[in-house]
Design brief:
Number of strands: 8
Mean pLDDT: 93
Strand order of the largest sheet: 2-3-4-6-5
Distance between the termini: 21 Å
Low-confidence stretches: 1-21
Number of helices: 25
Radius of gyration: 28 Å
Structural class: alpha+beta
Largest sheet: 5 strands, mixed, barrel
Shape: flat
Amino acid sequence: MSWRFIMFVAILLAWADIARGYKVGPPLSVEKLAAESDIIFKGTAVFGGLVQDEWFKPYSNFVAQETQFKVISVIKGGPPGAMLQFRHYDKSPRRMGHCVQPQYYHFQSNRTYIVFAKKTERAGVYRQLWVNHKGMEDQGVLLCSDDQPVTAPTVKETLWNELTVMLRSDDVSNVTYAIHQLDQMSGGGHRFENTQDFDRTNVLAVVHDLMEHSASEVAQAAIVVVGSHNPYLSDERTVFWLATVGGAEAPGIGKMDPKMKNTGGELYEKDLVIIADSNAPAETRALAIRALGLVRKPVLREAINYWLADSEPAIRASATVLLADYPAPETNRRLIALASDSAPEVRAEVARAIGYSQQKELANVLGKLLADKDAKVRKTAAMSLLSFSPKNEGIAEVLRANLENAEFQPLFLNALARENPEPYRDGLARAVEEKTEPTNWWGGTAPAFDAWDILFKYIQHQPVDSVRSGKLDRYLDAIEKVGNYSSSEPRDIYAFYVQRGMSELAKKFREKANKAASYDLDYFFKQVDQNPSLYKRE
């Protein structure tokens, strides 16, 4: 597996799990989940204990468990009797550190669940559906808030009824659980973590009433769902939205849907404004404002001006990022003024708003924020700056002025060199050799590898005579120091030499690379020998 990408934490659950070395599939629809099951039952967990079962292969920090259930209703499958046993993985009480994670469930005694299960060879004993967990990590089990029998005619209606009943629970954790489940099952959140089982507008209708719940955690969970997980809601999505709306390449950063709509924000815009203007805690009010991201209704402009004057920094910050939806000369003047706000969270949102609205005219403001005393402000300014194409001279000027900024080396160098490598060859070579890495970075492709890729592609496009003349030896030496990312890089370097008739260099590089490799790298060099023309890095 290639390690060329150093991915941002929580980029996408499915891909993160693949990087950890085990297969994670997308969640199944309710129909497919039901089809996979031999039995679906609602039951109350009575007690559990360890079990020996060959089906459950050993996993570090996890154990095979057998939980006994008192059956309340059988939704699918034959009647198992008043009691049944369900075998499943669970966390070990002595769990330590990070490890490969199977599908596992932890049941609380006297709590009720809906369980999807497979038969075993023993009567009355069932097991979990699969070994590897899905994008929805708890899929296959649903917590219930009561022990009432199931009356709905279908599995989907049963789950809907259980979750909507749970929304009315006095237990805050029950309510937030139900909100999260309804969100995931109606297309909310990351696309590898959700299904389309429930109509989104129906979910929004039952969740939006909870935005004014007395418990802040419930109100905020509901607001996030109504806000459609729009990129204005959290810092974690900033880099992905900038990669989506920006005009520059963002190596190693995934993109979001550029046509993303905030359906909930559009439907319940007035309710969100009421919450933003209420006596709710500042964090809840600020979240309600962010939940209006991408709504872009002109009527909100007056409310934004009002929030920008609020004494709470969190409110001003939320209103500031919302300015990205209203690009205009007046907006730019407000952003310039807000860049001097006393609160660092407001200044960070200025940088984010400039990137989200792609206002290249404000490149100098981003340059100013790169020197801010707050590290988060500087990082957001750099992130935003790199979303712009350096083909614009104003952007390029700020990038050039910050080439020696140790916090972001060699990110700015790579951005400039990607457009025109010639003036930056020496810098790229140093970045490759020294494995330079930013000290205030948000993730993506390893910058040293990105520098190598830019430099190698540049050399590939040089005339053969120029490459063989010795004029580029400084850079040939650098590309050979690529590091241990994958077999592709040494293979392509070797192919480059072979293609240009540089047989002596090819031989020396091959010998050196083989000695340094911890695996059979020569296998890939032999592939090049068979047909060198197949290996070009474009």
